[in-house]
Amino acid sequence: MTAGARLAAVLLACLWPVLAAAQPVRIGSKQFTESVILGEIARLAARDAGVPAVHRRELGGTSILWQALRQGDIDAYPEYTGTLTHELLHDVPADAGIATLRARLQPLGIGITDSLGFDNTYAIGMRQQEAARLGIERISDLRAHPSLRFGFSNEFMDRGDGWPGLRRAYALPQTKVSGLDHALSYRAVASGAVDAIDLYSTDAEIPYYHLRILRDDRHYFPRYQAVFLYRLALGREQPAFVAALRQLAGRIDEPAMRAMNAAVKLDGRRDSAVAADFLGTRVEAGRRGLWQWQRLRQRSVEHVELVAISLGLALVLAIPLGILAARRRRLGQVVIAATGVLQTVPSLAMFVFMIPLLGIGTWPAVAALFLYSLLPIVRNTHAGLVGIAPELMESAAALGLPRWVRLRRIELPLAMRSILAGVKIAAVINVGTATLAALIGAGGYGQPILTGIRLDSLALILEGAVPAAVLALLVQGLFELVERRLTPRGLRLPARQ
Amino acid sequence: MSAAETAGGIRFALDGASKRYGDSIALQPIELAFDAGSTTALIGSSGSGKSTVLRLLLGLEHSDSGCVRVDGRALQPADVLALRRRVGYVIQDGGLFPHLTAMGNLALLPQHLGWAPPRIRERAQALAQLTRLPADALARYPAELSGGQRQRVALMRALMADPDALLLDEPLGALDPIVRHELQEQLQRIFAELGKTVIVVTHDLAEAAWFARRLVLLRHGAVVQDGSYADLRDRPADDFVRRFVQAQRTLPAAP
Fold this sequence. Notes:
The complex is a heterodimer.
Chain A: H1 2-15, E1 25-28, H2 33-48, E2 53-56, H3 62-70, E3 76-80, H4 81-88, H5 98-105, E4 110-112, E5 122-127, H6 128-134, E6 150-153, H7 154-158, H8 163-170, E7 177-180, H9 182-190, E8 196-200, H10 205-208, E9 211-213, E10 226-231, H11 234-237, H12 239-247, H13 254-265, H14 271-279, H15 285-288, H16 292-327, H17 329-344, H18 347-358, H19 362-386, H20 390-398, H21 403-433, H22 446-455, H23 458-486, H24 489-492
Parallel strand pairs in A: 1-2, 6-7, 6-8
Antiparallel strand pairs in A: 3-10, 4-10, 5-8, 5-9
Helix pairs in contact in A: 1-16, 2-14, 16-17, 16-19, 16-21, 17-19, 18-19, 19-21, 21-23, 22-23
Chain B: H1 3-6, E1 12-21, E2 24-34, E3 39-43, H2 50-57, E4 65-70, E5 73-74, H3 80-85, E6 87-90, H4 102-113, H5 117-131, H6 147-159, E7 165-169, H7 177-194, E8 197-201, H8 205-211, E9 214-219, E10 222-227, H9 229-234, H10 239-246
Parallel strand pairs in B: 3-8, 3-9, 6-7, 7-8
Antiparallel strand pairs in B: 1-2, 1-4, 4-5, 9-10
């Protein structure tokens, strides 16, 4: 215990993060290129209007951004009217205009700009050749080909205005429908792994992959006009920023957006450079000159911080819980079952659950990782203590030592190996799981992985995946060292006789 | 601290104490007293309840009925910790803690009692002489000691704080015959020198007779006979006692 507690204390002391002092305007974006470009445009527009702004890019999906905006964790983000009518606001007509939305958003403390000038609505796309061969031009033509395989983005699969509604509206018979990441679906359709995918009408890949967009002949898909949502309080706090956002309205048409998407996604240009070109401004020198190793260092700090703080906190709670579980059998089963249930929550869901409680950024990620760390440590502490030979427990009791002395001097040292093994498992799992924390704005090695998936860039994915793997190995090695140091020598000896 | 000089041991008594584990009866209500400074051997087959007697006396188990008396007073839960410090307890495999050296094992209780390190060292060295443990064995871990050395260290650990009584549960059960024989002699001498209340549990009649003048034979959790070896041999209380005595093998005569 003393050793474990000391380790936790050191980790906590070293890595307590210093929270940001000054508060610039915070712009969020979703985890797809267009949203990131729009976020970057908003940041540069704000900067040019003299308002310091930061862009928290690639914060996962709609619900994360919406919750973050409502809680004031971000100040603005690009959104689409169709998402508002179909997903975020439940009591507005599907064809509600921006004026209606503005009236509905106001009581929530949220403002909305006019349309930025383009629609990015859902559409269904197929390979040109395949569509021509089967004679499919309209979505209703799909009815005649029930064996076609669909690959839809996970969001499209679930939302009301996505696949379930589309299937009903067109009475589509297809049953081979699988969920895909949107960034991967183009490759899937191009390679013939699926026959039709959902896409956005401004996607850069449509011409690149020679896809045909099927006509929405029943006008099923709602309009998805691009807008910025922002906190109304910003009108008082940063009027210049709100004015700059409003000035973006009507300035981006569909070809312009598709071209910007293509410049980033297909030509590999930096999103900030593309955004700056659009605004006729320049990117700050400092951002462009950020060297790879500097980025790597920053991500490493973020990643290690996430793992170390969550693990440190977990030690403080999980070891006492494990002791309690070993002392009281009935309660112990409850504790282990409860931590086991936590473990079954999918990691992404766990991160998203934390947002209403802790917002976005480092802390909700730490909280999620903390909860994941509990089970292996509680379990192994419990197992280590329960596994002590009964005659040793009895000898300890017979010596006349009080309970806490027995625990400290005899039981915990005897259980130390098992406890450390649990901590090691928790640490290694955390290194992997923490890559998902980038989705809620906590940074780390997950950031280049997200961007890499979005831009279909293996190099970027490896930029995150390789250091994560190296860190996992380092952590493993470190704990093996600690294990050797903290496991009493007497326990490592083979028994004589 | 040297209680042996003043008190000369503890008087233990089981006053109608009984113990059962679930459906199986470990000890029937029993009346049994152990005088201060006396040496008694509890004998019987395994499962006869002899270990349970020691565990009740130490408060490691609570009797289902009756009570345990220590110097005439019924043992209360609040007094158990203080009692255990006045009693040394040695079990079959020594019960040494594998993560501590022999010295670390010896020092556990004295350290908790606040003894200064030199005093602990001196006491350990004195006991090493008493038990004839080689001095360099103190720095070793239990896994590095022989079985006989482990039992010596266990005995030393039990004696560190100079207890008023010594309870031994098959202390030599796991040793080979030569070491066992040697330790039997030493233990007999040590019991005599210290003048404490000693209760030793064994299933070996010869060993019991070697250690103690008073033998208590238990069977199915009840006392079958309480007397000297000669009593058991010459005036067995029943057929079981006769068979128990006869079951001790004597060496065949040389051809």
